[in-house]
Amino acid sequence: MPGFLGADNSPRQNIDLQQSLLITGDSVEADLIRQASAEICPYSVMLRRDFRSFKAFDLPERADAALVLGYIKEAPPLPVVCISGQIYAPGVNMSVEEAGNSGTLPVDGTVWYVGARSFTEETERWARYNHRLLTAFELNLEDALKTSLAELNGNACRLILNVDILDPVWTPSLSRRFGFGFSPLELLRAFKCLEGANIDSVQVCGVTRCADVIAERETARIAAELARELSLTVFRSRLGK
């Protein structure tokens, strides 16, 4: 039986469990997250909402509500609020140095880096000078998100959540592990301020293949749960209760 995020890694799919939210992603990472959704409940206890309760809409009406699973192969529409433990080029899974060499750095003033805690002096300087950096050591996550939304002044944005924002004790299958991360509960509490925000798509990424299958499944499960919570929070008012 497919999970509530779908059953395979087709680029676009509308599954029977819910037809109102466009779910995209054609990577191995996306497939891992979809598989993990079969093992967890579509109901959010904290929000008291069910992922399957979204109402159905025609495709043009759903164009501004999308859930992206995994990394994508091109830079996302901007501006972007990027919740991540690292500073990188949003969406394309490249370091700042790699993106600079390939010409895929984001346009200046279009990215809000929220919760970062692992970066070099050069990368920090780039993020502060060219974009907006709200590190995990300066503000709590909720205040950082509220600040980002206030500075966007109601303009539409894309939200990217990299699971490396969490401490590796919760996400053991990461390409790079570093401490002092957030707990899942801290994230869920911070997400409350996103309800009603002008966010046209949510991307959940950061799950990587590893030799430890249990660690891989645990990280994918957390990503699936976060995808559920973010979708129910961000899109509820547009897609029905």
Features:
alpha/beta, globular, 8-stranded mixed sheet, Arginase, Chain A, two-stranded antiparallel sheet, 241 residues
Describe this structure in words.
- With 241 residues, the chain is an alpha/beta fold.
- The chain has a single domain, classed as Ureohydrolase domain (Arginase, Chain A, 3-Layer(aba) Sandwich), CATH 3.40.800.
- 32% of the residues lie in helices and 20% in strands.
- The protein contains eight helices and twelve strands.
- Strands 1-2-5-12-11-6-9-10 form an eight-stranded mixed sheet, with helices on both faces.
- Helix 1 crosses helix 7 and helix 5 runs parallel beside helix 6.
- The protein starts with 11 loop residues before the first strand and ends with a helix.
- About 7% of the residues have low confidence.
